[in-house]
């Protein structure tokens, strides 16, 4: 199996599993502190990955420590992704947050390429370019209706909407930065499993602080129920993240970002299967525009995946 094919399998595994987790298992997590669950799931799995790497490939950990700037960037971007995303969800419509977040990842990769970042990558073909242009139009439309109060949910006035959109932009740009730092470490010989373990220490520390401060407190915690939720999280939270980590090592950052942009479409399709699609008309219009662009961009990116040059 070529790197391009395996990369596509990992990328689509991430997108589909993440969407399934959001739709079919979202309610399972609603009764528990999201910071506590995140700290437990990613803390334990990261510790396992680091232990495995320390035993089997300790030189990879030394390489990562020897490139402190990239390692710090990986940790900082990972923490910003989830913290900014969580607070954005409290302010504006979740469908808008997820869609703008997903659409800005390939846009941020293109901006990084224009600025000369070597791990970023340019457009590969016209199909991908047309798709990304339509994505930008869809994202702009969703941002506009949110500020104007036409979306399904804004917790406040236009200033709250704007703050939620800014946090969403920070989250999307941070995930693009995480991809770039991951590919930089990959080219230095740090494997995906080692990177998985190395990227979460700062996030876990921030998540534990958020849990202790009660940012998402849901009342008394049932230890038995929490343990079950954490075990479920190992499969539906940790595995998709590792699939993305593996995909980063196998394909260009823009191709992966274009495929990742399909996430909102799969969420929408899974919601149809579950029978609970309920969007404001203006939001639905923006999603249709976005879905059209995401399909074109992902198709263009997938066509070029086998020609992507990635050092592993």
UniProtKB/TrEMBL annotation:
Q: Does the keyword Magnesium apply?
A: no
Transmembrane domains' residue ranges: 32-52, 64-89, 95-117, 129-148, 160-181, 193-213, 225-242, 254-273, 279-299
Origin superkingdom:
Bacteria
Can you name the source organism? Sedimentitalea nanhaiensis
Decide whether keyword tRNA processing is in the record: no
Tell me the protein's name. EamA-like transporter family protein
Keyword annotations from UniProtKB, A to Z: Membrane, Transmembrane, Transmembrane helix
């Amino acid at each position: 199996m070529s790197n391009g094919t395996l990369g596509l399998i990992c990328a689509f595994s991430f997108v589909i599993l993440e969407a399934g987790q959001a739709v079919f298992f979202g309610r399972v997590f609603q009764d528990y502190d999201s910071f506590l669950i995140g700290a437990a799931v990613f803390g334990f799995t990261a510790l396992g990955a680091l232990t495995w790497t320390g035993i089997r490939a300790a030189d990879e950990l030394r390489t990562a420590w020897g490139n402190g700037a990239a390692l710090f960037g990986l940790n900082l971007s990972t923490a910003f992704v989830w913290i900014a995303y969580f607070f954005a969800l409290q302010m504006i419509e979740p469908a808008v947050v997820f869609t703008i977040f997903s659409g800005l990842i390939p846009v941020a990769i293109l901006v990084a390429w224009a600025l000369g970042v070597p791990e970023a990558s340019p457009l590969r073909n016209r199909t991908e370019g047309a798709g990304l242009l339509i994505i930008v139009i869809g994202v702009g439309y969703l941002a506009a209706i949110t500020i104007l109060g036409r979306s399904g949910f804004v917790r406040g006035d236009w200033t709250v909407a704007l703050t939620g959109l800014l946090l969403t932009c920070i989250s999307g740009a941070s995930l693009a930065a995480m991809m770039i730092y991951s590919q930089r470490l990959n080219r230095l010989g740090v494997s995906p499993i080692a990177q998985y373990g190395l990227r979460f220490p700062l996030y876990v520390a921030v998540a534990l602080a958020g849990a202790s401060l009660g940012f998402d407190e849901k009342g008394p915690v049932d230890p038995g129920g929490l343990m079950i939720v954490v075990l479920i999280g190992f499969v539906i939270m940790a595995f998709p993240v590792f699939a993305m980590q593996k995909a980063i090592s196998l394909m260009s950052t823009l191709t992966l970002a274009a495929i990742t942009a399909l996430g909102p479409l799969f969420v929408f399709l899974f919601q149809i299967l579950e029978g609970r699609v309920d969007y404001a008309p203006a939001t639905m219009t923006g999603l249709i525009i976005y879905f059209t662009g995401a399909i074109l961009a992902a198709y263009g990116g997938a066509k070029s995946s086998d020609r992507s040059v990635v050092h592993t």
